[in-house]
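Page 47, continued from p. 46.
Same chain as before, 210 aa.
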Amino acid sequence: LLGKWNLASELRVSGYDLAIILVPNPAYIFVSIWALISQRVIIQPDSSGITFRFMSRFATAVVKHKTGTLVMTTYLKTITDSISDLRRLHKELFYTRAAKEKVNAFLVKHGLIGDKPLIGISASAGNLMKAWQTEKIAHLADKLVDDHNAKVILFASDSDIDRDRVRQIKKEMNHEVVDTCGAFSLKELPALIKELNLFIGVDTGITYMA
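Result:
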């Protein structure tokens, strides 16, 4: 009982608005009530005990589980019915304030702040069979600078292969560009990508981030 009370206290401090109770256990309903969670969604199986049936009256929504149905199907229905945003395919990436500050310092250091379009190009790919030839990237980057007066950032990892590719691209270019080799971790990249006007890439992870 003490453990359940402590759990309820922790949940109350966090200020949750919704509890989704996937296990048909009266104790979890008690905990969500004690935690002052205003919305309490539960799964109710075909057969349940008297105590659970009584406690289910205190749920704000009930999802019926039919015997013979995959439990995972009922779980997913419970979650998607409770949170309408999960029905949308829109995705979000988040980054920390520290990542944002690091990106700002990077942009200032390399003279990338201003009115000129800021364009990122994927210089590599996780699967090198998907990567563009270096001469094509160099030609595209030069054309973006010449035709649109753009500032170009080459996105690449800190691996030896990526560093070699970036060096080759820069060697084949007529203009100077900036690269991200070793500058950012994967979780920091969204903060930089958000600053771009355009990202150009192949079928690779950073493209999906963008």
